[in-house]
Design brief:
Layout (H helix, E strand, L loop, with lengths): L13 H6 L1 E5 L3 E5 L7 H19 L4 H16 E5 L2 E2 L2 E2 L4 H10 L1 H10 L10 E3 L8
Parallel strand pairs: 1-6
Antiparallel strand pairs: 1-2, 2-3, 4-5
Length: 138
């Protein structure tokens, strides 16, 4: 076989895709997010069902809000693994699928940040990504 020099920057990091990387959000909040890729066994197992439901919603001309309700649950269940800095009344909220789903539905920019990074494996090459929060989008 061939041994190529210095190609690490051209290779996927399937461990990070599977185990998650830090997604930095404003205000010192961090989500640990897995990729929506074949390297994530939970996503791989449900990917076809999720794609079919997204097609159904699209064909039904579902609102963006309806799509978000569906995806927030899937993201909380299959992609967000943990978090830091998410508080309620000053107390750190432990991560659970239910709490994650509620947070992604309440925090528009957090949902948009997860949605923007999880499908691109290039985002899972380093230990941390900072969310780009577009201030102009309301």
């Amino acid at each position: 076989g061939y041994a190529f020099d210095n190609i690490e920057d051209l290779q996927r990091n399937r461990d990070l895709e599977r185990d998650g990387t830090e997604l930095g959000l404003p205000g010192g909040r961090t989500l640990i997010v897995r990729a929506a890729s074949d390297a994530n066994p939970q996503w791989r197992a449900q990917g076809e069902k999720i794609a079919a439901e997204l097609r159904r919603l699209s064909n039904a001309r579902a609102t963006n809000e309806r799509v978000r309700v569906f995806l927030a649950r899937k993201y909380a269940e299959l992609l967000v693994r943990d978090w830091r800095g998410i508080t309620s009344k000053g107390i750190e909220v432990p991560y659970s699928v239910e709490a994650g789903e509620a947070f992604l539905l309440a925090a528009d920019d957090a949902y948009a940040a997860v949605d923007a990074i999880v499908y691109e494996t290039k985002n899972f090459r380093g230990q941390r990504i900072e969310a780009v929060v577009d201030e102009a989008k309301n």
